[in-house]
Amino acid sequence: MADERAEARRANRRRVVGHHVIWAVSAVGAVIAAWATTGTIGEAAFWAPCAVGIGFGAAGTTWAVTAGEVTREERPRGTPHPRSRRARGETPPRELAPPWRWPMVLAYAVPVPVAMVVAPYARGAEDPHVLAAVQPFAVLIGWLCGLLVFLFVQLFRLVLAGVVGFGRPLATGEVEGEDVPRAWFVGPFVGTASLLALPLVLVGPLAYESPYRRDVLPLLGVVRDGVDVDHPILLGMSQVATWAIVLGLLAGWLTHRTVGARAVASYRE
């Protein structure tokens, strides 16, 4: 039991220290990017801090999920551990506060925007007030984009797990050693496998410029007037991937409602 508690404390400390390392590296990187790109007003002044924010959002969220919560010994609420200092009447030890608690948040959230706002004025930029407003905002946008990157990776992992989970009984005809009809898994496998083309769909908007907006019509093969296609091969691949997902989900649903339903009925009989 003592070894488990010691390992839990070490795991908790690694988790918190890992958070602080990610926050500190991202903070330094954001400030360096702001000071390095503050000479002129251009795309670099936005994309450099934004790229740091993307890395911060993806890395911080990934670490929070992969590190996991520390398992603790369950005791009634308000009951101290028998060998704790509070139970012995002593002052409880000072713990390393998680990075999402105050004032730890202020230790990162205050100096970074301040340094990024001061940088254009200190370096004598032409329009410092523009950069002072753009760069902290770019870090925030980048962090949200990093969170979206993490969520997409988790979604793709879920798709891969579905392909493997539905494909194994489809190939073997067994689930936990029990024989089952393969037809049960044809529809879910087809629909899930079609989602593997999702990355190609997401890179499709990079292949064209639209005067209207980054809409989905070019991905469906409807290229309207004024749409400038820069990379036709990439756009064609994205169009094929888009229709593969649509038709795959439709085919999977229809197969599951027809073939799968008949297989279930015959299996129950």
C-alpha end-to-end distance: 52 Å
Which structural category fits the helices and strands? Answer: mainly alpha
Largest sheet: 2 strands, antiparallel
Provide the helix percentage.
Answer: 55-70%
Low-confidence stretches: none
**Total number of beta strands:** 4
Total helical segments: 8
Shape: flat
The overall pLDDT average reads 79
What is the alpha-carbon Rg in Å?
27 Å
> Roughly what fraction of the amino acids lie in strands?
under 5%
Strand order of the largest sheet: 1-2
Run of helices and strands: HHHHHEEHHEEH
Task: Explain the layout of strands and helices.
Layout: H1 2-36, H2 44-67, H3 104-109, H4 111-122, H5 128-172, E1 174-175, E2 178-179, H6 186-194, H7 198-203, E3 208-209, E4 228-229, H8 232-268
Antiparallel strand pairs: 1-2, 3-4
